[in-house]
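Open question from group meeting: does this chain pack into something compact, or does most of it stay loose? Before anyone orders reagents, we agreed to write out a predicted structure and look at it together. Recording both the input and the output here so the notebook holds the full record.
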Amino acid sequence: MTAASQKIAVVLFNLGGPQSEEDIAPFLFNFFMDKNIIGAPPPFRWLIARYISTTRSKGAARDAYKQLGFKSPLLENTRAQAAALEKTLQVAGFSARCFVSMRYWRPMAQDVIRELNDYLPDRLVLLPLYPQYSSTTAGSSFENFWAEVQADDGPLHARWDDEMKVDSIGCYPALDGFAVASADLIRAELEKAPPGTRLLLSAHGLPEKVIKAGDPYQKHCEETAQAIVKKLGIPGLDWEVCYQSRVGPLKWIGPSIGEALEKAARDGKGVIVYPHAFVSEHVETLVELDIEYRHRAAELKLPHYGRAATVGTHPSFIGGLAALVQEALDGTCPQRLCQPVMKRAAGAAGDN
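Structure tokens returned:
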């Protein structure tokens, strides 16, 4: 049976976000209870997660989400991407449905598994909306989804090994469609900026110890940056990679975006910021970049501060995702996590 004649489900993984003020604390609690985020033993992790979520939901996180009407746009934006991808796959001749699975807030894996039990696909493709692989993002989503499938007693669990082929796309840091879409959006901002403006490619940061333990995220972020700059094709472009969203006392990878802005101020440079590790707008782009760091740039008297939009449903990006799905279905996707690797990771999940 060819892939085009099979019933296909594509599950898009993303972080999730609160949909009301009341959701902020439980969303944060779910986040910090993830062993990939805080590696302490479960009883201590519970106490840490409870403390951080309670404190931040009344402080910094509440203040940030208040500027968005206490509702993250991430779910709506991810559903738009799922709809666009589903349409693209159907136009290409596949009988496909796309589902959205959020890691830390609804709809979560168990919610999506109930939908999949009703749909019962012949083929299942797991596709994180994280271009760069990290144990804290895509890795955590894979582990959690597999654990929930194993815990569920529905037909999806029964068919998982024997009747239904599962493909897991691990990462796509240099995906052509993502680089083309990113270059389009950056170029539009560069055209509005004064000559010599510096491009800051900003990614969510991670503690250094995560990278030193073998996580490829930082290397992937650099690969993404190189792919985007190559697509821009601007001779002598002034650019650098930086990292944002630091929390806690640990040493994080750098330079931070704050440090990059201070360097630009010393150099008398304006900047355009592009969040090259994010594929849709959410609190870290709409508040952290558009409000907080724009304000910091003004304090530093930068001659220009611009921010290029995330790829969202840009046709090149959606086309790139569709190509990844088709390659996974054909068995030719070069950057996928094979099923045995996923199962070993899930088996190591322990208390997940």
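Observations to bring back to the group:
The domain at 3-172+315-347 is CATH 3.40.50.1400 (Rossmann fold).
The radius of gyration is 20 Å.
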